[in-house]
Amino acid sequence: MRTPEPVSVADAEPTTDVRRYRAVRHASTRIAAPLSPEDAVVQSMPDASPVKWHLAHTSWFFETFVLEGRLPEFRPHHPAFRVLYNSYYNQIGAQHPRPQRGLISRPSLADVLRYREHVDSGIETLLARPAALDAQTLALIELGTHHEQQHQELMLMDLKHLFSCNPLYPEYAPAVNEPARRPTAVEPLRFVEYPGGQAEIGAGATGFAFDNERPRHATLLTPYALGTRLTTNGEFMAFVDAGGYQRPELWLADGWASVQREHWQHPFYWRCIDGAWHEFTLHGLVPLDPTAPASHVSYYEADAYAAWYGARLPTEHEWEHAAQPLPVRGHFMETGHYHPRPAGEGTGLRQMYGDLWEWTRSCYGPYPGYRAPAGAVGEYNGKFMCNQLVLRGGACVTPRSHVRASYRNFFYPHTRWHFSGIRLARDPA
To answer: N or C end of the chain, less CB within 10 A?
Structure first.
């Protein structure tokens, strides 16, 4: 593979933009650091991507949307990468088929890391030239860093799925030291009531937000109540033991079809071994903790559980209206913990941010007045606003700066490999 000479970066005190760019890019390589080259190339299912592909695609984003046409001396690392690491941007051109990303054994992981260094050198050179940094360029670089943080979460999701397919149940990272006293039970679930009325929803005009979080707009809410915490493994086990996966009256039609077709009997990463329940985590296979939040459930499972409980799932507007600027649970890059934790004691809403993405019953669509950005970058969110459901709150593997009340994640209702859980809602009596 021909590798062009990297562009030079002046030795100077890094700016805030450079420091943020470096921190985000370094976080991705830190996630990949414990992996072997073999770990980084395998694709375990069509919805997942190899870690090596994530590392290359996030560099492709900066190369394609920022460096091309803005840095005269910059040359692409390899012309074939334009197709190889294009995800879904049809206005850019052809893409390598998504289900075949695991077949890309070359370039090697070492070559991909050199590609990252080449792109990093170009971005830092650009950031060192104030005259070249118009508002659009800075906005694209900022979008690129948030895009990369999304892929950091995807790397961990995809790795968890990959390792779960291995009968050795390998651990991605060793389990962190937990306090000697862990709860043996959790407080009973309560509901916090809200009177409804007009609410302002969406991100404000300042600060970073993805285009699908705007424009901010008014909506009318009827009175509702939210559960004080997430549904636990122990509570979901009661649903399993009550025959929840064998009762069609609890399920949406497409959900029941998924149960029958996929033979679902429990959440995605639960394993019954020698009569004892375990859960596969990024820390390996561990005994199922009944006090921890039930995770990796589809929308269909969340909705069926809510029906069995006599409740429902919240709308995304109810969730955002109730969300408060509460502290985020310890971030995985700071704590080394890659699993949601029990709610603990307290009053009011808990586990709103940073444990599990919480399913809502809201279809993923545009806000009133939404317009996708012009050009290929406008394909980032808008074209996916169909047939998916919104999740809110952020997970234990979500970078801290992504955890905000207005953030809208979205997945198809049958998917389960993401870090998703259940917060119940109900209508007041």
So the answer is: C
Angle at 99 between CA 96 and CA 102, to 5 degrees: 85
Which sign, positive or negative, has the C-alpha torsion 373, 375, 376, 382?
Answer: positive
**Residue 232 has which token pair?**
């636990």
CA distances from 25 to 55, 83, 147 (A): 9, 22, 11
Q: Would you put residue 237 in left (φ > 0), alpha (ψ -120 to 50) or beta?
A: alpha
Structure token pair of residue 143: 């979008």
- How far apart (Å, rounded) are the C-alpha atoms in residues 291 and 324? 24
Helical H segments across 215-279, by residue range: 233-241, 253-262
Q: Mean pLDDT score of the chain, rounded to an integer?
A: 92
Dihedral angle of Cα 330, 336, 338, 341, to the nearest 10 degrees: -50
Note if the bond before 340 is cis, omega within 30 degrees. Answer: no
| Residue 318 three-state SS | helix
How is the beta sheet containing 276-281 ordered, strand by strand?
A: 270-273, 276-281, 284-287
- Give the type of residue at 302: A
Q: Across residues 103-127, what is the average pLDDT? A: 96
- The residues, any chain, with a CB within 8 Å of residue 208's CB and separated by 6 or more, are 142, 146
Bridge partners of 426, per DSSP, are 225
Question: What structural domains does the chain harbor?
Answer: 16-164 (1.20.120), 191-426 (3.90.1580.10)
Q: What is the mean pLDDT of residues 132-147?
A: 95
CA pair distance 426, 359, nearest whole angstrom = 14
* pLDDT confidence bin for 344, thresholds 50/70/90: confident
Nearest to 378 by CA among 92, 85, 152, 41: 92
* Local confidence band at 178 (pLDDT 50, 70, 90 cut-offs): low
User: 3-class DSSP state for residue 363?
Assistant: strand
Whole-structure pTM value: 0.94
Spatial separation of the C-alpha atoms in residues 129 and 396, rounded to whole Å: 37
Q: Are 65 and 144 in contact (CB under 8 A)?
A: yes
Residues 6+ apart with CB under 8 A from 200: 216, 217, 218
Residue 125 clears pLDDT 70, i.e. is over it: yes
Give the side-chain half-sphere CA count within 13 A for 189: 20
Report d(CA 366, CA 210) in Å as an integer.
12
Residues 6+ apart with CB under 8 A from 31: 51, 152, 155, 156
